[in-house]
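Morning!

This is the sequence you dropped in the shared folder:
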Amino acid sequence: MANLREALIVEALGDIAVLLERLEAIVPALASTSDAVLSAANSLTTRSADAESRFTAFTQHAVTHLSEHLAHRSEELARAAVETEAQALHATARKILQEELGPPVQRLARSLNDSAHRRLHWPSVVVGAVTAVAASAAAWPGAFYLLTR
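The structure's back. Tokens below.
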């Protein structure tokens, strides 16, 4: 049993030696891995700062472009609204002129036309009036002569 115990202890010591050798091999690997992780972190920090500045520039460009587009589009829509409103006002004015002012203007035009036609008859009325005045003027001296006698 003592030999068995010694054999187990020797075997355990051999296993411990193998584990120690493996641990000693892990230390440089961990150091190189740690260096690689730190290098990668520094690289990512640099890249993230660069990416952040590019993203900021892109965002600023997008905001500027969008603002210009919205201003242009708003101006187009305002122009279209003004044009539509002007057309509606013209149509309303035409309708008011036709429906509200049209009949009275037509009646006035007819009256003026009738009046113009009546004026064509005035020369005959004037001739009759002149004849009546002349006859009256001729009759007064005769009437006066007869009355004073």
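Headline: Helices lie at 2-119, 122-148.

More detail when I'm at my desk.
O.
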